[in-house]
Amino acid sequence: MTRHHPMPDPAPDLSGRVFVVTGATSGLGLATTTALARRGARVVLAARDEARGHHCAALLTRAHPGARLDVRHLDLADPDSVHAFADRLHTDGPRPDVLVNNAGVMAPPRTLTPHGHELQFAVNHLGHFTLTARLTPLLAHGHDPRVVTVTSANHRRAHIDFDDLTGTRTYSPMGHYNQSKLANALFALELHRRLTAARHPLRSLLAHPGYAATALPRTGAVGPVRLLFGHLLRPLAQSPERGALAQLHAATAPGVRGGELYGPGGIGELRGDPVRTDPAPRALDETAGRRLWELSQDLTGMPFTLPGTDGP
User: Fold this and answer.
1) Cα separation of 124 and 182, whole Å?
2) How many CA atoms lie within 13 A of 202 on its CB side?
3) Among 230, 221, 265, 263, CA closest to 244
4) Residue 177 appears among annotated catalytic residues
5) What is the tens place of the pLDDT at every residue in 224-243?
6) Is 255 exposed, middle or buried (0-12, 13-18, 19+ CB in 10 A)?
7) Which of 171, 177, 211, 262 is catalytic?
8) pLDDT tens digits, 259-276
9) Residue ranges per domain, the chain?
10) HEC profile for 74-90?
């Protein structure tokens, strides 16, 4: 049974710290960016639409004149874009202290990227896998360094079909979304185990927003998913600002530990203040975690090894 552990909101001063937030121009990402900037952090807005990123940054700066914001282009479906984004941070800075893997797509029609990966698996998991691998050397030197990977409560009802990741035989828009969210959880927990084995200073954590009123179900989802989550149930959703509290807690609160998952503490983990909760048993499967890690290295061509750990 899932255990909930209520958490206080410390609202720490984040002056002098640098956060990278993917999907920073809308929904949970924009709410996270706003909260971080308001607390004094410098935030790198990783945005697929760079013009929208600059528009959001201008609005935030107008509301919070002291905000320190950098807009950088990042398309998680395009490995070249991920590497270019990472290269620029390595070359020009700023050096990040925390990476928030927030961006995602939800329940689109079956779509393959130019590299042949199913879009949700590519954006939600593989892009973040590559980005985390590239930024880990920088994060290692950060102040209280963390990687927060945003999953979904739906990871609890998912399984990964390692033999048909692209949905060639059977594709379900919501089923493959859930699969990508389980991949997020498996990745973050495998990363935690490897960081622990390497005695690495970086911490890997998980968060999920519950049910938040973001544009995600309405901009890419099709059919019943768009109707149900984008319209009919929307009045029951909490705001993006409330939905972002769990990932903000994981990213900023003192005392959090690697391998922990935070989500809303209300009924069904759909809404409420952030609490520590338990990942689904499938997310804790170490064999599946290792398999996904090695497969992700193969699919991305991105080796991800840490000092003191074995390679693939």
Assistant:
1) 10
2) 29
3) 263
4) yes
5) 555 555 545 655 789 999 99
6) exposed
7) 177
8) 999 999 998 899 999 999
9) 8-300
10) CCCCCHHHHHHHHHHHH
